[in-house]
Write a structure and sequence with these properties.
The complex is a heterodimer. Chain A contains four helices and 13 strands. Chain A is of the alpha+beta class. Chain A has a six-stranded mixed sheet. Chain B is α+β, with helices and mostly antiparallel strands. Helices cover about 25% and strands about 25% of the residues of chain B. Chain B is built from 22 helices and 48 strands. In chain B, the strands form 13 sheets. In chain B, strands 39-40-41-38-32-42 form a six-stranded mixed sheet. A six-stranded antiparallel barrel of chain B has the order 43-46-45-44-47-48. Chain B has a five-stranded mixed sheet with strand order 2-1-7-5-6. In chain B, strand 3 and strand 4 form a beta hairpin. In chain B, helix 4 packs across helix 9, helix 6 crosses helix 7 and helix 10 packs across helix 12. The longest helix of chain B is centred in the middle third of the chain and has 29 residues. Classes of the chains: A alpha+beta, B alpha+beta. At the A-B interface, strand 6 and helix 4 of A face strand 8, helix 9, strand 37 and helix 20 of B.
């Protein structure tokens, strides 16, 4: 019997365009853990992240995705380490969303322009600054979105970057919808 | 190159180095890059552009821009193209619309001979009787419908949509709009400038050299300030809280793009639109507005005629005289309306002006009549903002009255002044808009958790301290002493309006609808004020007393494609989708999921499951992760049965009811560990059950410790069914599968095919021994393929939804939403034992307690309630499978008693089987039912003792 290997929801293959100003990267394989912690639990203090914001601890993105919910996203071992530090006394729950969520990263100076084509939110720096977290309909699919600026596609200065998570079953559809939205900006897919 | 093309003009926008070939009216023609289709046609000395809608009178260019009512043409397979606006492209075939046999000789022009019978309301009055002839009338009238030809074979165009949230949107890129946009951007605002035309600068573009220099300077300043500029785009509507619809016709990829903008402030700088004059023969080719002549000469280098009469009431008319002379047009007469001069008629052939009659009765030979009699203020966006503009007779146009704080007005629509004054007013408006946008932005950020934090108190809305623009006097010139066309698009004349007024349609709103004046493609931009003026004259009142119609969206027509935008149709697929495709599955769309309906032969798939083993991808099955000490309380509340004692490793089936006792969902829930449960729902009910549960938790029981997390797509769900399923699964897992270790209605975590954290359920929907596997979705395909490989010697085959439907029907399982409906109370489904009225409470309990007290669910005693009961039926003739929803009727009548809810041919039983909703009186075992088929035939069916047609004792699934 062959050993299992993780299969991304994005099964089509794409030819990346070197030097593209906008990139769409499939990061579905990253570990994603949902933590729910009721008010008063010690877990909230360890997570130490307010709702609708995020921070990077080590190489784990800790996002306050709902008033009592956090998402920890990153390499499996790093997320596992973070999770192990979370006290589970009181009303605290942990659910692994690694397999349940497709996750893409849209990066580039024109990323917000591409997002404007698929989502009705205000993507300005004032309303969606780096670190902001929200939920919204993207191309008619409910998504969690975190702005997590990284070095641009050319490896230069930090560029706006949106981490977009949706139900895994919508993954290929949403990936294609984002590619379509980014066509006028010369988007390149990395899957 | 062409007959009326002038030598290079200083302000021309055409690129003579790029000639473009096209055909007009079947003949080859040439234009230049930058030409509009109309300017290129006019350059070829073509005076007739179209025929009018009703009378098929020849028409020539009137405004030579977007609003030109006489310039609609067919371009290739695209009808109703505004040639006064659409830019020329190489190789297009341009033709006139709705003419036969040709533009020059149109037989339908005979309508003019019966014109006096085609008065307003002609259709309503003539074709209402006899009503039965309307279909025939309709076919004939359709032959007279205006417009071009739709080619149903045309390739679908691509449309786009965009959302944006600028601080300031400026509608109009004339001098005031440009200045406003620049000032707002310089004040730090994000600014979106929307210009209707292809060039910025408004009327400056066809003005003097100084005008063009000013336009260029303003444009450069706007671009330097970082203003986002959309050319060839229109703000089509303003809605609540400055929600703006903008149609962008200039997108590089899309035919049109609808931009939905939420502007913090809107600046309306739409300028003014020159108004036609009403007199006899005012639609004869050669009658043209001053702005049209100036566009043709100065922007497109086209000589509009050879000998002109100019009726002028303003500076624009005066400047046109100079332009015409420079273009080599002889001036036969300049008629100054400010000095009492007038024009009463044109004469000549139907196809061209040959002479013009002046107010004193004298005539002048001319092939061109230019009118410059004033402007209409296009106040549409102000109307949509709640403003009711007020007519000023001294200025001969409407002016804004009062707008909301987040809507500002500048430019000609706001008042008059020198260019310097207009630009300064624009700058002040832009600065004010930016300041007010800041206050709005502050409020939005303060209210939004994810936004950049604000600490200062919200700034006050800045007061309006702008220096107001003045109002230049202008003579009121609407209709001459003669009658003529008021609405060129709809072929409505001033005589028609007077006649309709006399008929009693003397309010402007009624007059508009009765005559259709202002309802054509120009949407009143050219006709509204003239209509009001004619009505006022007919009523003996002033324009102010008559008032005007209220402009509603859209400001300019847009295509349905633009409104639809990009089509988002989300599709969901499981991790095994690629395998299904590669192995010939016939797809079926179930909700948003693309699922295999079958792999070629669903009947054979059933037989294989009954005899060997089959696997089905059931990933869409709803799954909710429940954690917390109070989960049993929640389960007791949601389900009708009891859940407090469900042990770890056990599974229970339950039905959920809404508060009216109607079945809303069903499924199984298993206790995975001490603190974790996994609830499954129907595939279509996953979202609604989650919402339902959260609603209870967040409103009625916020004190309960329960966390619900949807995990439907976290798992690839596979049902392994058939007598050999245990043997197959045992090859892939170490979890003991014998009945003692893993009994029916139990759940076990474990590793399958090397994949950890799988969940195995000993349940199934097929009535066979089966195991439901929930595999972490990233490894779903791996496990599926492992099952197929390991089961090859066991005769494994995949099966699809159709085979599953057959087997569940053989087993008598109902499907919520198919076998139940919005009136199906839980006891009527045959599951009365699952309704535990001795529980403290559950959703729907009061209603169910009452209903069961009335005998609902007990077929023997429920006649009084007469609620349909779900029963299992078998057709007398096994070769007949009645379509689902077939009616069950009283014998020898058409009285409907119930319906077949599910039906299939059972390859296992060699019988036609089904489920049906019938009245209690017909629910007893052995009752003969009459089924009315869709072809009108009748057949009979017999009510069965059990819902299960197959293995009613469940021996196979417990084996």
């Amino acid at each position: 019997m062959t050993m299992p290997t993780f299969q991304s929801p994005v099964t089509a293959s794409y030819e990346p365009t070197p030097g593209a100003a906008l990139t769409l990267t499939d990061e579905s394989a990253l570990s994603k853990m949902v933590v729910r912690a009721a008010p008063g639990t010690a877990a909230r203090g360890v997570l130490a992240q307010a709702f609708a914001g995020s921070r990077v601890a080590g190489n784990v993105l800790i996002a306050g995705s709902r008033p009592d919910e956090w998402m920890l996203i990153g390499p499996a071992d790093a997320v596992a380490t973070r999770v192990s530090e979370i006290p589970t006394d009181g009303h605290v729950s942990l659910v692994d969303w690694t397999h349940g969520r497709a996750m893409f990263r849209l990066t580039g100076d024109v990323a917000s322009s591409a997002m404007e084509k698929v989502c009705s939110l205000d993507w300005s720096d004032a309303m969606m600054p780096n670190g902001a977290v929200t939920s919204a309909s993207v191309a008619k699919v409910t998504c969690d979105i975190a702005r997590n600026d990284v070095s641009g596609p050319d490896g230069g200065e930090r560029a706006p970057s949106y981490v977009i998570l949706c139900d895994r079953s919508f993954g290929q559809y949403l990936f294609d919808a984002l590619l379509d939205a980014g066509e006028e900006f010369g988007i390149s897919a990395v899957s | 190159m062409t007959m009326r093309r002038l030598p290079q003009q200083p302000g021309e926008v055409i690129d003579r180095s790029q000639p473009l070939k096209f055909t007009w009216n079947g003949k080859p023609a040439v234009g230049y890059q930058g030409d509009t289709i109309a300017s290129a046609i006019a350059a070829g000395d073509n005076r007739i552009m179209s025929r009018s809608m009703k009378y098929h009178r020849p028409r020539g260019l009137l405004t030579a821009d977007f609003w030109d009512p006489n310039a609609f043409v067919q371009v290739d397979d695209e009808p109703n193209v505004r040639s006064g606006h659409r830019l020329l492209t190489n190789g297009i075939d341009v033709g006139p619309q709705n003419v036969w046999p040709s533009l020059d000789y149109d037989v339908k022009a005979a309508n003019q001979l019966v014109g006096r019978f085609l008065s307003p309301g002609f259709y309503y009055k003539t074709f209402i009787h006899p009503q039965k002839l309307w279909p025939a009338y309709e076919k004939v009238l359709a032959q007279f419908a205006p417009g071009g030809t739709v080619d149903y074979e045309s390739e679908m165009a691509y449309f786009d949509k965009r959302y944006t949230h600028p601080d300031v949107v400026v509608a109009g890129g004339g001098p005031a709009g440009l200045a406003a946009a620049t000032a707002a951007a310089e004040a730090g605002a994000s600014v979106l400038l929307v210009e209707h035309e292809h060039h910025l600068g408004g009327h400056l573009r066809y003005g003097t050299e100084d005008d063009r220099a000013l336009a260029n300077g303003l444009e450069l300043a706007a671009r330097s300030a970082g203003v986002e500029i959309l050319l060839d785009s229109t703000v089509t509507g303003r809605y609540e809280d400055n929600w703006l619809g903008i149609v962008q016709r200039s997108h590089p990829l899309a035919s049109e793009r609808l931009v939905k903008a939420r502007a913090k402030t809107l600046i309306v700088a739409a300028g003014l639109i020159e108004r036609p004059y009403v007199f006899e023969g005012n639609d004869r080719p050669g009658v043209m507005l001053a702005s049209a002549a100036r566009r043709l000469i100065n922007m497109y280098s086209v000589k509009p005629g050879d000998r002109a009469v100019v009726l002028t009431a303003n500076e624009s008319g005066d400047q046109t005289v100079a332009d015409l002379e420079r273009a080599g047009v002889k001036i036969a007469e300049v008629v100054d309306a400010r000095a009492g001069g007038n024009v009463t008629a044109t004469a000549g052939s139907q196809k061209a002006v040959e002479s013009v009659t002046l107010g004193d009765g004298s005539t002048r030979d001319a092939d061109l009549l230019i009118t410059a009699v004033g402007w209409t203020a296009p106040t549409s966006l102000l109307n949509m903002s709640g403003d009711r503009p007020v007519y000023d007779p001294a200025g001969a146009r409407f002016f804004p009255d009062r707008t909301p704080d987040n809507v500002l007005v500048t430019g000609g629509i706001a008042g008059d002044g020198t260019l310097d004054q207009i630009v300064e007013h624009g700058r002040e408006t832009g600065a004010l808009a930016a300041s007010r946008a800041l206050a709005v932005a502050h409020r939005l950020q303060a209210l939004t958790a994810r936004a950049m934090p604000v600490s200062d108190p919200e700034p006050a809305m800045a007061p309006d301290a702008r220096t107001p623009l003045g109002r230049d006097p202008h003579p009121e010139l609407y209709r001459s002493t003669t009658h003529g066309i008021v609405d060129y698009s709809e072929d409505v004349g001033s005589k028609d309006l007077v006649s309709a007024t006399k008929e009693g349609y003397d309010s402007v709103e009624l007059l508009k609808r009765y005559t259709t004046a202002t309802m054509g493609p120009a949407q009143g931009k050219l006709e509204t004020v003239n209509t009001v003026a004619v009505l006022a004259e007919a009523r003996g009142e002033t324009i102010a007393e008559v008032g005007t119609t209220i402009w509603r969206p859209p400001y300019a027509p847009l295509t349905l494609g633009a409104l639809a935008g990009r089509i988002f149709e989300p599709e969901r697929v499981s991790s095994v989708h690629s395998w299904h495709v590669a192995n010939g599955a016939k797809p079926i769309l179930a909700g948003q999921w693309i699922r295999p309906e079958h792999y070629g032969n669903p009947q054979a798939e059933v037989t294989n499951v009954r005899e060997n083993v089959g696997i089905i991808d059931i990933s869409p099955l709803g799954k909710l992760d429940l954690q917390g000490a109070d989960v049993p309380k929640l389960l007791n509340l949601l389900y009708t049965n009891k859940w407090s004692k469900l042990g770890v490793g056990s599974v229970r089936y339950g039905i959920m009811c809404a508060e009216d006792g109607v079945v809303m969902d069903d499924g199984v829930t298993g206790r995975i560990s001490e603190n974790r449960w996994l609830m499954t729902t129907t595939s279509s009910g996953a979202g609604s059950v989650w919402e339902w549960a959260e609603n209870w938790l967040q409103t009625a029981h916020p004190d309960w410790d329960v966390h619900i997390t949807p995990v439907t797509t976290s798992y690839t769900s596979i049902n392994v069914a058939g007598p050999k399923s245990r043997e197959l699964l045992s090859r892939l897992t170490d979890v003991p599968l014998d009945n003692d270790s893993f009994d029916y209605m139990q759940v076990r975590p474990g590793t399958v095919a090397g994949v950890e954290d799988c969940i195995m359920w000993r349940i199934g929907f097929t009535g066979e021994l089966s195991f439901e596997l929930h595999v972490p979705a990233g490894y779903g395909l791996h496990v599926w393929e492992a099952l197929m490989d390991e089961g090859a010697d066991l005769g494994i085959k995949p099966f699809g939804l159709e085979a599953q439907r057959i087997m569940r029907l053989e087993k008598g399982h109902f499907i919520v939403g198919q076998d139940t409906d919005g009136l199906t109370k839980a006891p009527t489904t045959g599951l009365q034992p699952l309704i535990k009225l001795d529980k403290d409470d559950f959703a729907g309990k009061p209603e169910l307690a009452w209903a069961m007290g009335q005998g609902v669910g007990d077929a023997a005693d429920a006649a009084g309630m007469d609620l349909p009961v779900l029963v299992s039926v078998q057709m007398t003739d096994s070769s007949i499978v009645p379509p689902e929803a077939s009616q069950i009727v009283r014998p020898n009548t058409n009285e409907i008693l119930g319906r077949i809810t599910s039906s299939r041919y059972s390859p296992t039983l060699k019988a036609s089987i089904g489920l049906a909703q019938v009245p209690p009186s017909h629910a007893s075992s052995g009752t003969q039912l009459t089924v009315l088929l869709t072809n009108g035939d009748r057949t009979t069916a017999t009510v069965q003792q059990h819902h299960a047609h197959f293995d009613p004792d469940g021996l196979r699934l417990r084996s």
